[in-house]
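User
New here, help please:
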Amino acid sequence: MNCEEAHRYCESLPHAESTFPFDDINLVMKVGGRMFALLPLDKPDIILVKCDPEKAIDLRERHSDIQPAWHMNKRHWNMMNLTTLSDNLIRELILHSYSLVVSKLPKKTKTELNLL
């Protein structure tokens, strides 16, 4: 998978939006105003995604190309190599990140976005 394909998959999720809140290099994917993925455009083979802490530990032990994400809470964020991991695993972990964020959204926001 490449950066563009990962971005298209992120955008295909309900109510996902692409933003540049930090600078013009780090593409941030949000749902309900909350971040679920970051694509550093200057490193097109990398994506950062949120992850359940226990699952993150297991993934890091099983895949050398999944590491704690730099500049993020390393307990909750993974950095993945888009070119070496399977497309199915990448999509699964993007969806996991998206689902974690949606599950933590306030009920009002979920109702407004029809995500209940």
In short: Helices lie at 3-12, 53-62, 87-104, 107-112. The CA atoms of residues 18 and 98 lie 13 Å apart. The chain has a mean pLDDT of 96.
